[in-house]
Amino acid sequence: LFVRNDHVTYVWNHIYLKKVRNTYEVQKPVSGRRASDCVSPSIAALTWELPCYNPDQMPHRKGLVLSYLDGHVTRVPGSTKEHSWWAYHSRDGWEEDHYTCGNQH
């Protein structure tokens, strides 16, 4: 299926890294969490596309399509300064009401 879908697949945000990005936040997984336990649903991603590493390989004009807890879907541009969208942004909105790494995407 991955090959037949132009080498694109979608990932569920089950767990994210701690703010310092050195280990996983296992005490507060996204799976099973109540929506009311999210600080900012409009920036809390539920799914995103792979590949999510190099913008030149990202599936939508050097960007990714993400779905968020509040129900909206949007395209975000990739960044050459980040080695992985997930490592820098999967925590956004779940614990803080701002973008954890300081930039929107």
Q: Which labels suit this protein?
A:
105 residues, mainly beta, 4-stranded antiparallel beta sheet, 20% strand, globular
Topology:
Elements: E1 9-12, E2 45-50, E3 63-68, E4 73-77, H1 85-89
Antiparallel strand pairs: 1-2, 2-3, 3-4
Report on the structure:
This protein has 105 residues and is mostly beta strands. The chain has one domain. Helix content is 5%, strand content 20%. It has one helix at 85-89; strands spanning 9-12, 45-50, 63-68, 73-77. The protein has a 4-stranded antiparallel beta sheet with strand order 1-2-3-4, with no helix packed on it. Strand 3 (63-68) and strand 4 (73-77) form a beta hairpin. The longest helix is centred in the C-terminal third of the chain and has 5 residues, at 85-89. The termini are far apart. The relative contact order is 0.22.
Summarize the structure.
The chain is mainly β and 105 residues long. The protein is 5% helix and 20% strand. It has one domain.
Strand arrangement across the biggest beta sheet: 1-2-3-4
- What distance lies between the first and last C-alpha atoms, to the nearest angstrom? 28 Å
Could you name the ranges where pLDDT drops below 50 across 5 or more consecutive residues?
Answer: none
Rounded mean pLDDT score: 85
Helix content: under 10%
DSSP summary: helix tally: 1
In what range is the share of β-strand residues?
15-25%
